[in-house]
Structures are given as structure tokens and as C-alpha cells.
Design goal:
This protein is of the alpha+beta class. It folds into four domains: 25 residues; 133 residues, Ribosomal protein S6/Translation elongation factor EF1B (Alpha-Beta Plaits); 92 residues, Immunoglobulin-like (Sandwich); 86 residues, no CATH class. It is 27% helix and 36% strand. It is built from five helices and 21 strands.
Length: 416
């Protein structure tokens, strides 16, 4: 090998060593960078996990302290007594009938807490159940309703047999606690910061006004005839609207929505009976639009309809006729005799009420009750008597009373 070849071979060897060295260095540097990145990543994860543990620990401690604050006393006997008294107070405030609160049992749940069970039975409405639930859940005791049974009773299904199982927690760390948080005196009107709706009235509106065990509230139905109702000018009358609520035990309210009657202010705007009474002062054909609304339960249903009424002139009053004579007194007046004296027939009329006998001849007048009569004819042979009384000619016979007379003909006709 020449000197030149040796130099060339040495240069090639040096280049190969440089390439291999550079490759080896790059591999080493990449490994170092990867380890540094892994160290940084693990360090960051450690910091994150430590922060998470610290945050969770703070939250857990806060929740634990909240549980301690809401817990029943740690001693079962004290917890059962105090909590039973509290339940009885709520049941009494709500007004459940035939109510009973019983402590059932306490179960150990490890060393941390005990689970106490209570039963409540009674009778009440859905509104009273709503009040109980509002009072129960706005109180910060560590408790819950495990079971609630509502069984309808009665014809309207609005009275409920109520049965519930309640569970409450007594934490062992609260052995020195002896009292529960008291109820607010005005809890019905107080705002709750624990419930979705703040006021009891909000729950009453959505829950208590319903009958969960009866058919849905039906829309009222008008049953008034379609024919126009008649009224008389100047006389007080009514447009009577009738409707059927469709549900038992509901009240209806009628409201005047509009009318084309000129003096609309004279018509009542609302009526509970459906009778809109007023004194019309104008004649004509009119209409009124009436709305009827039921009393629930639940959202009130309404119906609207137009009704016609007519105001007419008063009809002329018929001519008054004289009343027929009152014959109550006449029943005691008897014709006891028809005789002839001095060739002239004579009538003996006996009044039993006074034991008086009146002697009458043809043309004589006499009184019966408030009427005045006159003898027209006396027949001795037949015992028949005719007399005028009350504008007519009457006929009677011997032995009869004046209440048994028979009308013969009117006076004018007899005269003609």
C-alpha cells in the first residue's frame, strides 16, 4: 500500500468514527431528554394528585362536618327520644288525624354511625301531606323518607290513609349532642334554602290542589237552553245561566265577559248562582258572553259561551173581576120557613151564629158576609126563594142554607 493509500484509508476511518460517534451521541441525548420529560411529567402528576387529594380532603372534611352538624345525638336512646318528639311536633302542626309516631329500631353501620328507623301513620289530605314534606325536608336533620304510602278513602277520595317509614342517622362522634335543631315558629311562611321551591305556597299550588286518585278535573259544561230568555221593561228580572261542573263537590263562579246591552254597568259582573239580576230600562234583543270557572282541584277549568235575552214591553194588566161572594158566613144562614101572612109570602132566615131569625118579604134586603142581597121572589107553594147577590140571581129552597144556593142567571139578563 502506498503512502497515499494509507492516508486515504486513515481519513475514511476517521470519517466513519465521526459518523458513529455522532449517531451514538444523538441516541444518548434522546434518551436523556426522554427521561427528563418523564421526570417532569411525573413531578407534575405528583403535584396534581397532591392538590386533588388536598381538595378532596377539604371537601370531605367539610361534608363530614356538615353531617356532624345535621346528625342526631350519637347515643341511640337520646336520638330516638329527641327525634320522635320532633316528628310528633310536625305531625301536630300539620294536623293529621289519628296520628301515631313509633320508634322502630337502630342499626349499627360500622363504627361511624347508626341508622334509626321511625314509623308514622295517620289520616289527612294531600295538602297536609305536602305541608309535612315541606317541613320535613327544609329541616337540616340527617334524615330521609324511605317509604311513603297514600291510600285514598271516602267517597271523594280526598282523605288519605298515610303511612311512612323514616330513616335518620346518628353519628358516633356526636355522643355529647343532646338537642336537635328546633323548628322555625313560622315555618309555613318561611323561605327554604334547601328546596328547589322556596315557599310552601308554591308546592300547594302544584301538588295540594290536585286529587291524585280521582279522574282529572273536567271542564264545566253549560246546560242553559239556547232560547233567548225574556225580561220585562222596568221590572227587575234575571238572565239565569246554568252549568254542570262535571265533578262532585265543586263550586262554580260565573263572570260577565261582555254584553251589547246599552247599560252594561247595571248587570252584575260576577255571580255564584249564575243569576244576573237587574232592572232593564231599554227594550230589544241583546246578548251576553258569560264565563264559568270551577273550583278545582288543580288548575281551575273555564268555559265561555254567548247567551241571548230579550227585553219586552209589559203586557197590559187584565181587568179585575169582582170576587165571588164569601159564603163562609152563609153556611150558618138557613131558610127555616116559607109562610104566607096576610096573603103575602114571607121568608124566615135563621142565623145560627147569633141565634137570630130574620123575617123577609119580597123586595127586602139582607147581608151575607160583605155582600148585600135582595129577595126577588118567594113561592109559598114550592118553598123556593130567589134573591140577588153578587150580581147574579140565586135560588134556594126551604131547609137549605145560603151556601148551597144555585146560580140561575145574571141580573142584567133577568132584567132584560
Amino acid at each position: 500500500m502506498t503512502q497515499r493509500e494509507k492516508l486515504l484509508a486513515g481519513a475514511v476511518a476517521v470519517l466513519v468514527l465521526l459518523v458513529l460517534g455522532t449517531f451514538a451521541f444523538n441516541q444518548f441525548q434522546d434518551a436523556v431528554d426522554a427521561k427528563d420529560a418523564e421526570i417532569r411529567n411525573l413531578t407534575s402528576r405528583v403535584k396534581t394528585e397532591k392538590f386533588t387529594i388536598d381538595v378532596k380532603g377539604i371537601r370531605a372534611r367539610k361534608k363530614y362536618n356538615d353531617y356532624l352538624d345535621r346528625s342526631l345525638p350519637g347515643i341511640s336512646a337520646v336520638a330516638s327520644s329527641r327525634y320522635s318528639d320532633w316528628l310528633r311536633q310536625v305531625v301536630e302542626d300539620v294536623g293529621l288525624d289519628n296520628s301515631k309516631v313509633d320508634y322502630v329500631a337502630a342499626r349499627n353501620r360500622g363504627e361511624l354511625y347508626k341508622q334509626l328507623q321511625f314509623d308514622i301513620v295517620g289520616k289527612g289530605s294531600l295538602g297536609q301531606v305536602t305541608e309535612f314534606l315541606f317541613a320535613f325536608y327544609q329541616q337540616k336533620h340527617l334524615h330521609r323518607i324511605d317509604r311513603l304510602i297514600l291510600q285514598p278513602t271516602g267517597k271523594t277520595l280526598e282523605l288519605l290513609n298515610i303511612s311512612m317509614r323514616i330513616e335518620a342517622v346518628a353519628m358516633s362522634a356526636q355522643k355529647d349532642k343532646v338537642d336537635l335543631q328546633p323548628m322555625k315558629e313560622a315555618w309555613r311562611s318561611a323561605s327554604s334554602d334547601r328546596l328547589r321551591l322556596e315557599k310552601l305556597a308554591d308546592y300547594d299550588r302544584f301538588i295540594a290542589g290536585r286529587n291524585l286518585f280521582a279522574p282529572g278535573n273536567q271542564v264545566p259544561r253549560f246546560v242553559t237552553d239556547e232560547d233567548a230568555q225574556e225580561m220585562t221593561l222596568g221590572r227587575r228580572g234575571s238572565v239565569r245561566i246554568r252549568a254542570d261542573a262535571g265533578d262532585r263537590g265543586q263550586d262554580l263562579t260565573f263572570r260577565l265577559i261582555s254584553t251589547n246591552y246599552p247599560d252594561a254597568d247595571e248587570i252584575p259582573k260576577e255571580s255564584e248562582s249564575g243569576r244576573f239580576s237587574f232592572t232593564p230600562e231599554k227594550t230589544g234583543d241583546f246578548n251576553m258572553v258569560v264565563e264559568v270557572q270551577d273550583s278545582g282541584p288543580g288548575p281551575n277549568n273555564k268555559a265561555t259561551k254567548e247567551f241571548a235575552f230579550t227585553v219586552k214591553e209589559p203586557e197590559p194588566e187584565p181587568e179585575r173581576e169582582d170576587p165571588p161572594p164569601d159564603f163562609d158566613v152563609a153556611r150558618s144562614m138557613y131558610i127555616t120557613a116559607v109562610i104566607e101572612r096576610n096573603g103575602e109570602p114571607q121568608l124566615w132566615l135563621h142565623l145560627r151564629t147569633t141565634n137570630e131569625t130574620i123575617q123577609l118579604r119580597t123586595g127586602d134586603e139582607f147581608s151575607v158576609a160583605d155582600a148585600t142581597g135582595r129577595v126577588r121572589e118567594i113561592s109559598y107553594e114550592t118553598g123556593r126563594v130567589e134573591f140577588e147577590l153578587g150580581g147574579q140571581i140565586w135560588q134556594a129552597r126551604r131547609g137549605g142554607n145560603l151556601a148551597d144556593v144555585e146560580a140561575v142567571v145574571e141580573v142584567d139578563e133577568a132584567t132584560n
